[in-house]
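Worked example

This section walks through a single chain of length 499. The input is the sequence exactly as stored; nothing has been trimmed or padded.
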Amino acid sequence: MDLGVNSHPLQYVDLLVILVYLAASTLVGAYFRKGQKDIRTYFVGNREVTWPLLLVSIVATETSTVTFLSVPGLAYHPEGGNLTFLQLSFGYLLGRIILSALILPGFFQGHYISAYEALRKKFDERVQRAASLLFILTRTIADGLRLFLTALLLQQFTHWNMPASILMMGLITLVYTYLGGMQAVLWTDCIQFLIYTLGAFVAGWMLVGYLPSGYAEFFCAGCEAGKFSLFNLSIDPTQPYTLWAGILGGAFFSMASHGADQIMVQRYLCAKNLTHARVALIASGLVVILQFVLFLFIGIGLYLLAQSGSWDLPPGIRNDQVFGKFIVEKLPVGLVGLVIAAVLAAAMSTLSSSLNSSASAALADFYKPQRPGKSDADYLDFSRIFTLFFGFAQIAVALMAWQIDSPQSIIDQVLSVAGLTTGMVLGLFLLGTLKRKISSNAALCGLLFGFLTVMAVYIPGRLGNPLVAWPWYAPIGTTATVAITLALNSLFGKEKGAG
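Given that input, the structure is written out below as tokens.
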């Protein structure tokens, strides 16, 4: 993809800043390698992590390049871009509160390294593996798309071709995750959170400074253009950013992504206790709201700068690429490197977490049950092999995304993919909270029906005739899975239940 936005090569000072950051990330992984003696330390940090580090890690993990580049693109959009995306974050906070009370305690009733081991306690290994497989497939596809978006920016300032950009990002992240395990992931998350937050603030401050009348123009012209519109009360289910989709769809999506997705549950399993996990989870919802405000404000500033006539954008440029173009063209030497490092930090925090959590799910849910009794050293070796496998799988997805080059916003693509399966798995966890006995056969049938139901509303959208927007995928999948499971449960009532 060449949109003519890479005409400003990176200066040596900026390159040095980026290289220092990348080298530091790799060194963190190498530092923690010496403490990796078993899968407990490799995957759950020996269960001694306090809530402040968990909070930062949760936020950093869900703040990928998609957030850094694509969310500003939503507010920048010349045709209707505004703050309505923020409505989702209200549902995200509500979902976290419900999750902390309803599902989170179940993860502390055993010494798990995979979220789906908890399902085996209620059902059986078939349900455990089905849920784990859905997670692994969804995570590999969604994070491959995130890797692709990061490579778009890398291409802008390095003049490399897309395959080279994808390989560089993917391999560097793979190296420090492979070396250091979960402790490396958590501490690099902390470093990356500080870097990308600082980078976003600096870029936003510089952006407002480029406007002819500064902050006055930002607020006045932004209001006149309708950019500060927040609430959309439409009841059209095909619109993704309405109040109803935000509160209901966002709550279900957050419960699913943070309660039925190994990438987040693995963080709670690292916590010292349930209280630390709860505080980190709920507080992360507040921090995410503030982050969305910051990135959406940056998008508004980009729109106003382009409309002022002092910054020309090439025809056909993706909204996802506008912030990247601003970084490489408008920021001074040194700051370009800082903000580029911030974008890479946002990407690497999510990708490293994804690799580690996918490997832990593969080991705990598939390999270890089939190969019991092996030594800790053997399990640790296979954990690293799984990390390598999923790293290369995500690189392959990113390369395919580059070839397909869908015009849909990448954040919509990523969240759509996540919403397809996480709602169904959330349904299993909600069933697991019931005191009544639930048949594993009924649960598997409910999971299948939930998948078919979600695909029935997803496929028409891909064909250009959407029935509902992506925030509704999670509630539809959850409701269908729970309803059919309960309806069929009586038919399998004589089966030996799990419970």
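What to look for: Residues 12-401 form a domain with the Sodium/glucose cotransporter fold (CATH 1.20.1730.10).
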